């Protein structure tokens, strides 16, 4: 029987197990969080020495070290490999990074040595699929010597350059916690793929020849596909055949181990960057299309490693692109990646900011990978315009371009390309199932989106409401929010939805989309305008609710800044009337006969004695006519720095949830006087307007004498207004 011998890299520790193919029932015991116990510690220097714990021993010859090192062997009696394990598990720590040579190891077997047997050793490797470091197994030919399984393992130095690109990770805490590895025992065999690029080692009866063949050819198909897309695979020529092994994934009983029973497999890169390998889950080998698509996913991770795109362990674009390419190996066009389906709302959190947002249910340290899964739709949407955009992203990352810029620039060869706008449009395409047709609208309608993410909220708009429903978001760069609007009450036939917004950023960065839905049906009402609206009675009578999509296109490095967005949601068919309490005050006039816009007076005075300000100085830029009060107020506070003046009091006012108050113009003040009894709270005194009348005078209104000109230094009443 042919065997394959893999080069092992020892960073600071190694797991040693003795395996044999024998007929035993497989077990999956519960493993404690840290089952490892020290069984021997010894200092070894230039004279060499032997560590002999009885159940395991190895000798280091003289001259192999130049100074003293403290070496330890750990052990656990837990059966962590299921069937076939005939020894405890051991872990060696303390070997220096510069150590290189042959390490003869003898392990005492605790079970019968029969049929084929071998020594399995695990080393710390970077698993691109988990964006984390994990242990992977290699298998070594062994001999039996009076109950001891003996094998010689070659240890080589880590490649320093790989440290710079992220393939190497010296996190010692991983070793102290140990690692769980599961291997299916049985007669070992192998299959070489048709082009001899992959050497698939499998154990019967856990994996059949047909399954090994299917996987080997799926990997071959993936490699050929990427070559046809223009990716350079020549750097792999010295790595062929690339080893592919199987084991039974069992979950995460010990910290820092990333796999679980639902995972298909993973691609790992050793610290030397010389031994790429694949590891697949025995439990998933019967799922033909799952294996084919995940082979494409994992093979693309190998392509990424050729371009050093895994240099940053938390580069979400690594998983986003690998998840997208899965569809290239699915037999129909309606493919929906499993991982994307589980994380599709991550893109709402921000193209970059979402990579740092952690959901407690997802575990610690995997936010970047999960975000990458959820960004696959954006990659697909862009590549639908230009398939060559995929390679451009990979090449940009190789040049240390920020992942966000790599995505936004990916379609630069497309006429009229605008990255931020295309990104924003991808959300509409996602909701309308134009990217992945099998996406369920329930993902965006169900309540958990609005309770588990910071960019989803649910509100109710009642037909009897006269005040807007207010919703506020802190939206990171390149993010989106969904506001679910439930309708209640009986709406008039003319009732329309009115949406307005205020933002601390540039309003041109915001785009909007309005959707209606009922049960599993969703449709687009319209998109684009911040004041978009639609008939409410028809939607309510039909049982529909509404989704408001708001996207923020702002994008300045580091792409994690937030913009405050305040949304006002209301119906605009209200028959507004003079004296109506609305918008933080009382309506006292309208702009025109439609009665849809006008002015609101604060219900009380803001001051009983304030000056107009800047006496003996003509500020200019004010107008006495109706409709100019807000502009007048801004002109005054920009040109007069005095504190406590009438215009500044109004401009700084925050009242009943509104902060856009201003000092009325003379025309607006006169209209207030005409409705003073309806508004209420006035005295028979003098009130300032925002209209200037030269260097010494300003306009106001005496509610007793109707006089309108006053010296600027007079102490007079102030009443603020706002426009709706």
Short summary:
The protein is α+β, with helices and mostly antiparallel strands. Helices cover 22% and strands 30% of the residues.
List keywords for this structure.
724 residues; alpha+beta; Jelly Rolls; 4 domains; eleven-stranded mixed β-sheet; six-stranded mixed β-sheet; 18 helices; 22% helix; disordered N terminus
- Tell me, what's the shape? elongated
Low-confidence segments, given as residue ranges, are: 1-13, 19-33, 159-187, 252-258, 270-274, 309-314, 524-533
Please state the average pLDDT score: 78
Strand proportion:
25-35%
Query: Total helix count?
Result: 18
Radius of gyration: 35 Å
Structural class: alpha+beta
The percent of residues in helical segments reads 10-25%
In total, the number of strands is 34
**What is the count of structural domains?**
4
Q: Biggest sheet, in brief? A: 11 strands, mixed
Amino- and carboxy-terminal Cα gap:
85 Å
How is this fold's topology laid out?
Layout: E1 8-9, E2 13-20, E3 37-44, E4 49-52, E5 56-60, E6 69-76, E7 89-93, E8 101-108, E9 117-127, E10 132-141, E11 143-145, E12 148-156, H1 160-165, H2 172-176, E13 187-192, E14 198-204, H3 209-228, E15 242-247, E16 265-269, E17 277-281, H4 288-306, H5 316-324, H6 338-343, H7 367-374, H8 376-385, H9 389-398, H10 403-408, H11 419-431, H12 442-445, H13 448-452, E18 456-462, E19 469-476, E20 479-488, E21 497-503, E22 510-518, E23 521-527, H14 536-541, E24 545-552, E25 562-571, E26 581-582, E27 585-590, E28 598-601, E29 607-610, H15 629-639, H16 646-651, H17 666-674, H18 676-679, E30 686-693, E31 697-702, E32 709-711, E33 716-718, E34 721-723
Parallel strand pairs: 1-12, 14-15, 15-17, 18-20
Antiparallel strand pairs: 2-7, 2-9, 3-6, 4-5, 5-8, 6-7, 8-12, 9-10, 9-16, 11-12, 13-14, 16-17, 19-25, 20-24, 21-25, 22-23, 22-24, 26-27, 27-28, 28-34, 29-33, 30-31, 31-32
Helix pairs in contact: 3-4, 4-5, 5-7, 5-8, 8-11
């Amino acid at each position: 029987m042919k065997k394959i011998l893999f080069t092992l890299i020892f960073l600071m520790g190694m797991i040693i197990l003795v395996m044999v193919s024998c007929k035993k029932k497989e077990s999956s015991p519960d493993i404690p969080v840290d089952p490892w116990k020290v069984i021997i510690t010894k200092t070894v220097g230039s004279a060499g020495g032997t560590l002999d714990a009885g159940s395991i021993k190895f000798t280091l010859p003289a001259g192999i070290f130049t100074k003293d090192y403290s070496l330890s062997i750990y052990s656990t009696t837990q059966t962590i490999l299921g069937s076939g394990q005939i020894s405890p598990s051991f872990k060696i720590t303390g070997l220096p990074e510069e150590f290189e040579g042959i390490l003869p190891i003898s392990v005492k077997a605790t079970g019968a040595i029969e049929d084929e047997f071998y020594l399995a050793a695990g080393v710390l490797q970077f698993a691109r699929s988990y964006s984390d470091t994990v242990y992977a197994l290699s298998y070594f030919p062994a001999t039996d010597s009076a109950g001891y399984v003996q094998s010689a393992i070659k240890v080589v130095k880590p490649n320093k350059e790989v440290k710079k690109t992220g393939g190497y990770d010296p996190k010692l805490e991983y070793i102290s916690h140990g690692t769980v590895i599961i291997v299916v025992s049985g007669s070992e065999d192998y299959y070489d793929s048709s082009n001899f690029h992959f050497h698939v080692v499998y154990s019967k009866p856990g994996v059949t020849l047909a399954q090994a063949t299917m996987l080997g050819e799926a990997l071959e198909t993936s490699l050929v596909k990427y070559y046809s897309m223009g990716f350079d695979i020549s750097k792999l020529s010295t790595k062929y055949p690339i080893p592919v092994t199987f084991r039974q994934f069992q979950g995460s009983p010990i910290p820092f181990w990333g796999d679980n029973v639902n995972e298909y497999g993973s691609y790992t890169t050793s610290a030397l960057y010389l031994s790429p390998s694949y590891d697949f889950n025995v439990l998933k080998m019967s799922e033909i299309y799952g294996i084919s698509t995940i082979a494409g996913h994992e093979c693309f991770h190998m392509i990424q490693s050729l371009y050093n795109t895994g240099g940053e362990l938390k580069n979400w674009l690594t998983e986003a692109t690998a998840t997208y390419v899965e569809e290239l190996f699915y037999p129909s066009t309606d493919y929906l990646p499993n991982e994307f389906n589980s994380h599709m709302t991550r893109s709402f959190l921000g193209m970059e900011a979402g990579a740092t947002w952690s959901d407690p249910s997802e575990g610690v340290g995997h936010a970047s990978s999960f975000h990458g899964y959820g960004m696959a739709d954006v990659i697909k949407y862009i590549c639908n315009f230009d398939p060559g955009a995929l390679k451009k992203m990979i090449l940009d990352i190789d040049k240390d371009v920020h992942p966000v810029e790599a995505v936004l620039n990916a379609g630069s060869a497309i006429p009229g390309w605008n990255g931020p706008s295309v990104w924003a449009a991808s959300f509409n395409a996602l909701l309308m199932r134009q990217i992945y047709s099998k996406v369920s609208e329930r993902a965006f309608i169900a309540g958990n989106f609005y309770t588990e993410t910071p960019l989803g909220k649910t509100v109710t708009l009642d037909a009897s409401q006269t005040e807007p429903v207010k919703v506020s978001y802190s939206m990171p760069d390149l993010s989106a929010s969904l506001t679910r609007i439930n309708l209640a009450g009986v709406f008039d036939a003319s009732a329309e939805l009115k949406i307005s917004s205020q933002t601390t950023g540039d309003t041109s960065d915001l785009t909007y989309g309005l959707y209606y839905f009922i049960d599993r049906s969703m449709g687009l009402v319209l998109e684009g305008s911040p004041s978009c609206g639609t008939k409410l009675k028809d939607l309510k009578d039909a049982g529909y609710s509404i989704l408001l999509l708001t996207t923020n296109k702002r994008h300045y490095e580091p792409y994690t800044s937030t913009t405050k967005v305040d949304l006002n949601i209301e119906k605009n068919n209200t028959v507004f009337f003079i004296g109506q309490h609305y918008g933080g005050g009382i309506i006292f006039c309208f702009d025109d006969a439609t009665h849809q816009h006008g002015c609101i007076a604060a219900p009380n005075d803001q001051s009983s004695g304030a000056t107009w300000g800047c006496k003996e100085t003509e500020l200019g830029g004010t107008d006495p006519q109706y409709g100019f009060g807000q502009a007048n107020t801004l002109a005054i506070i920009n040109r007069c720095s005095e504190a406590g003046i009438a215009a500044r009091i109004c401009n700084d006012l925050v009242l009943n949830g509104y902060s856009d108050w201003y000092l009325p113009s003379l025309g607006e003040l006169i209209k207030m006087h005409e409705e003073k009894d309806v508004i209420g709270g006035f005295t028979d005194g003098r009130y300032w307007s925002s209209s200037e009348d030269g260097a010494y005078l300003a306009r106001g209104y005496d509610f007793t004498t109707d006089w309108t000109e006053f010296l600027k230094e007079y102490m007079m009443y102030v009443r603020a207004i706002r426009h709706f």
